[in-house]
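LAB NOTEBOOK - FOLDING QUEUE
OPERATOR: T.R.
BATCH SIZE: 2
PURPOSE: Compare the predicted structure-token outputs for two unrelated chains run back to back under identical settings.
PRIORITY: normal
REVIEWER: second-year student, initials M.K.

ITEM 1
FIELD SEQUENCE / FIELD STRUCTURE:
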Amino acid sequence: QVQVVESGGGLVQPGGSLRLSCATSGSSFSDKAWMWYRQAPGKQREWVALITSAGGTTYEESVKGRFSVSRDKTNNIVYLQMNNLKPEDTAVYYCLFDGHWGQGTQVTVSS
């Protein structure tokens, strides 16, 4: 049974940083990809970043240069490091792995 659990959200001031975690289990981890999405109030869920099992990464244009995704292979945890956060980054952030969504973690950027 695949499990996906996000953590690390919170309230941060503009310009601040947060690191989100996505712990995954119950699946093979080869030839797979982990994806981060976010959903702001009243908006559709949008893709943010991706990391493959080979370590390749891709980012949505608005987060390039500010967000970085990485993977701890030993513990099967994927991280989303978010720097220089802006109010428009406020959303619930979700991890998608092997067709399974986590419960999401709230990120609020506000002064």
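ITEM 2
FIELD SEQUENCE / FIELD STRUCTURE:
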Amino acid sequence: QVQLVESGGSLVLPGGSLRLSCAASGRTFRSYAMGWFRQAPGKEREFVAAISVNRGGIAYADSVKGRFTISRDNAKNTVYLQMNGLKPEDTAVYYCAANQVVTEWELSRSPARYNYWGQGTQVTVSS
């Protein structure tokens, strides 16, 4: 079992920055690739970013590429999402998720591949 707790969501002006954190419980963090997803009101949950266990594999949605950066600290069992240049369309509940993998290079963009999810943190971009 893995428990995930997100933090860092807030109200921010367009063009501003936020850093989301996701702390994972347990001693098996290195068994999981990690991802960030988001869900806006009335829309389906969508992929934002993912990172492999060894940090060698990273993927982003086209809509956030160049603005968001995913990272992880395996010693702290924590994954981060640095969000710069925020836009109103980035407004959503952001979820981190853990995907149990066989190799340290794997990652996935598909929510169906993720075994555990956090409760989410609200990000609102508005003037």
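REVIEWER COMMENT (ITEM 2): Residues 99 and 115 are 5 Å apart (CA to CA).
FOLLOW-UP: none requested
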